[in-house]
User: Fold this.
Amino acid sequence: MTACMRMSLPIGVFLAALLFAGGALRVDSQEKGLSVARVRHFSYPTFTRIVFEIETAAPYVLTRSGDGRSLVFAAYEGGLKAASPLPSINDGVVRTLELKQDDSKPYISIGLDEAAGDVKDFVLRSPDRIVLDVARGRAPEAPARPDASPSTVIVLDPGHGGKDAGIVTAQGQEKSRALEMALALRKLIKRKSPQLAVLLTREKDQTLALDERAAMVNAAGSSVFVCLHAAPGKDIRVFILEPDTEPAPRQTPAVQRDFLGFEAASEHQEALWGRQQAAHIAESGRLGRKIARLVTGTDNAEPIQAPLALLKAIDAPAVMVEIGMEQDRHKAMESLAKGIEQYARGIR
Amino acid sequence: MPEGLDRRISRPAGLALWVAVLLIVFAAAGLFFWSRMEPPLPSGQAAPQGAVLPPQAVRGDASVVVMLYYPARGGGLTADSLGVKRQFDAQSQAREALSALFGYQRAGQAAVIRDLRLRAFYLDPAGTAYVDLSPASEQRDVRGSAWEELMAIYAVVNTLTQNFEEIKEVRFLLDGREAQTLAGHIDASVFFSARPDLARQQ
Assistant:
């Protein structure tokens, strides 16, 4: 590692001219420096936001240590005061915020976890705030596509996995059953329609959060999404997202809404997260109906509408299929493969 | 008052007074014990589906009958009527009904419900009920299929919304906090309203 890389790297220096334009931020000419009235933080699936509410404005400097494990937030000139205690976040991205002193100059040290990725900083007004967005690692990687660029991408999601075993019955664990079914389904679809790209969110026993799964599916450019689960008994049930599910909390306090300005792209993405499925409700219904009728062998079978946590963030026609542990798996997978193929043929 | 007159009145009158006092005491005791008697045991009678049933008073207003919705074995929700202790306001009465649901043997056999217990309950003036749940055991995760989780959620939602006109929607919390799901599938961050379509057709 070079000496240059070991040094602290300045990643943001806001000059007085930038901050003072428009006169929204007040500067005490007698005492230069930053006065932080309050610190808020929000943990989102893809990033952590730290908001410094500024009482006395001044230019600031944000630097990142060479090893990337901490940030230093300080006034460009003069001191830095924090009126309230600084929070411990500990959300896997940001650990703690501490007020420290270096060569008689105070600064806020922001400890980062290994998952912390790029840092973006920007200024908001009314009230005056300095916002730091610390990304959670790298953007989720889409499952590798085996084909060059097929137009139709089917993503299968074996439910649960890793620490989350799902239900456990005499027939085994749900996580293992779901993976077996997904692998069998991929094989069946590829055998009949080799031109279709069939991807899995997991191909081994691993823990994946619901938001991680959704991010992977969306990054893969999925055309059809099928989530596979197992249930006790013999029944097969097909679910789609309830059309009127409202993911955004209706009673979010005004003070929190205030931070959801649309100055940053990350904020815009965050505001849309969980609403992606709304654009595909009709198509999901069509897919769900086709699959439900084939797997149950009933002409008028309809999918069950439910507020499913995973499906709401999927940006493609999406269903969840729950297959009884005592059900004939091979027969169920053949019907399911047929339904997916028929639907995919219609959208190509 | 002359001495002779006082004796003439006091003897029979004293006896009558004692008899009257004893009668009043026995009557009061009888009323007290009658009012403290338990309500009838669950009838097992299926509820009329989809109808809002206000809690019904029984036995001198000491108890009310509520319909407890719970997952049926064959799929869907079914309901039994059960007497619960009368409370003085809708919030306390709804909490009493929910406690009865979580303590009801037939409901307690269902997945997800059996792994949860009622931690707290709050009803706001706008008609939103906040049901704060926690795992029944620290050693055991809350487990169930998507269908079982959906049924558990709507057992609570239908029990509240079908018995109490004041309750328009239900919000779930886990250990006092917003939770993404209760058992891994159903979005618990939304406001739930009644789903009469999930009741099993009789």
